[in-house]
Structures are given as structure tokens and as C-alpha cells.
Amino acid sequence: MPNGFKKCVIALTGDFDKPHEKVKKWIEIQGGQCSVKIGPSVTHLVCSEDHFRKSVSMVQQARKLKKCKIVTWDWLEDSLLANRPLRTGDFLLKGQIRAKAKVKATRKETRNDNIMKGVGLFEKGCDEFKTKMYTDGYHIYRDSTGFSYDITLARSDLTSNTHTRYFLKVSSFPYSMNLSTPLYPYILPRHSRVPLPAPRAQCLQLYESHIAPSKYACFSSYSSPTAGTATHVLAPLGSSFALAIAQFMDFFKLKTKLEWKERNGTLGKDSETAFVYTPPAEGEPWGMVDPESIW
User: Fold this and answer.
1) Residues 45-100: pLDDT tens digits?
2) Would the CA dihedral through 94, 97, 101, 107 be positive or negative?
């Protein structure tokens, strides 16, 4: 009869997809003993990760014994196949959980670094677009309170674990200028929607022309892990203020679940998936409550 385990007294705790009674017989066949409780004679506690993390009673007791090793199921299975108890170093649960935590932390750090790099590139792209619009005769629209209609919307998506930002802008231009940006001969419907491929960041901007009579445009720029940075037209160049601001507010509501006039209040419904708008700091212009009133 094999006796490779004659010096082993093994206890079990946790679910191993195998009945403990059957495991006990395998240990005894190899010459070992199986204990239902932790005592001074126990040499190994075969433990599931779940029970180890919960620090169940048997784990707490085993930790107090210097010679008792808390090991994974793999140690027991490999040892039984080898007909002898293997060294426990690579099978100690404490070490394995620490290693997993280290890998997880490294992945999180890498992910955060990638997010920050992506945000940096995105914000650079938004600034370049703003510069181009200024060259073409546009600037970010400011209302009578001094508030700039150039906002960022951000989200932490709980399912994909990505950070998403939106920038929304409205602009205007004079008919007499020779613009490098093409004019659109059509007007978007009031409730038009622009499909966006799972964006990570987006900028919403309202532009106004340098020269009167003022014309307007509204754009959203987005950034995502797969699509990079791109810009969509919400209200084309040459739009009226009414159309541009309506598209601005419609898009804001679509992403935040809030009316524009509610923007400085609490989160909207479905806030776990909605984008978040951060109001200006105290002392800075917060904008008109209802810009539609100036149509």
C-alpha cells in the first residue's frame, strides 16, 4: 500500500467540485490522514480561494500553526498524481492571492495610463479643431453671462470600465468669408441624432461667427479606444442660433438624461450610464438658465 503521505495530516475547507469524503479516501489510500478540524497535528489545509478570502474559522486556526501550510487544491491533486507530497512554495494560497493582486494592480495602472494618454490626445485634437474654426471665422459662443458653450461630458462606464468624455460646441460665421470648412446646403432636423461608436470622450461646442450678421454651428467631437478622435456635425455652418442651441441642448439631454436648464443640479435618471457634466467653479459664469428665451 502506498505510504507517500504517511507524514501528512490534511484538512479540507471549501468547494472543490469533489465530495470531501471521496478526497479523504484518496488521501488515505496514499497513506495520509484526513482531519475534519484544525489541530496541532495538521500539516496542510487544502483551501478554496473563496474560503481563504473570507478567512473562515479553519483558515484562522491554521494561520496560528507554524507547521500548517494553507495550500490550493492543485497542490493536493498534483501530489496525489506524484504519489508524494510536493513542495508547497508554488501552491501557498497567500502567495497566489498576492500575485493576483499585483497583476490586477499592474493592469489597472496600465489601463489608467492608457486612459490619460487617450484623454491628452483627445484634448489636443479638440484644441486643434477650435484653432481651425477660429481661422475659418468662428469662435466659441458666449452668452450674456460670459458662459462659454464649450463643455466636456464624462462617464465611467461600469460594464466596459472605460472613461468617456463628450465636448459640445456651437459656432457662427459670416456669409462673406471664404471658408476652408465646407458649407452644408441643408438644415438638420430638430431631433436628429448622430450615431457614435462607444466613445470614450466627447466635446460639445457651440460656435459663433466673428462678423455680423452672426451665424452658428454645433459640433460634437468624440474619442474612443477604437475610433480615435472624430467630429460630427450637429448643426451645420450657417445655422440659425435657434437650430444650433436646440441641437446643443438636445445632445446634452441625450447624454446626461438632464434638461440643459437642470444641468447644475443632481445627476439625471439612469445616472450609472449617463454622462456627467461638471459645472463651472464658484465665481465663474454658469450660463443662462434657458438660452432658448433669446430666440
Assistant:
1) 999 999 999 999 999 999 999 999 999 999 999 999 999 999 999 999 999 999 99
2) positive
Cell 455680423: give the residue. Answer: 212
Q: Return phi, psi of residue 196, to 5°.
A: -125, 130
Instruction: Name the DSSP letter for residue 281.
Output: P
Q: Which residues contact 250 (CB under 8 A, 6 or more apart)?
A: 190, 191
Q: Are 41 and 65 in contact (CB under 8 A)?
A: no
Residue 163 cell numbers, joined: 472613461
**237 touches 215 (CB < 8 A):** yes
Core vs surface per residue 44-79: b (16+ CB within 10 A) or e: bbbbbeebbeeebebbebbeebeebbbbbbebbbeb
Q: What is the percent of the chain with per-residue pLDDT over 90, rounded to a whole number?
A: 52
- Angle (CA) 58 64 70, round 5°: 55
With a cut of 60, say whether residue 124 has pLDDT above it.
Answer: yes
Using alpha carbons only, give the angle 98, 114, 105 rounded to the nearest 5 degrees: 10
pLDDT at 3: 80
Which amino acid is present at 226? T
The cell for 227 is: 475610433
Cell numbers found for residue 212:
455680423
Helix, strand or coil for residue 199? coil
- The percent of the chain in helix, strand and coil, each rounded to the nearest 5, is 35, 25, 40
Nearest to 171 by CA among 128, 136, 121, 197: 136
Q: Cβ-count burial of 100 within 10 angstroms (0-12 exposed, 13-18 middle, 19+ buried)?
A: exposed
Q: Provide the whole-model pTM.
A: 0.54
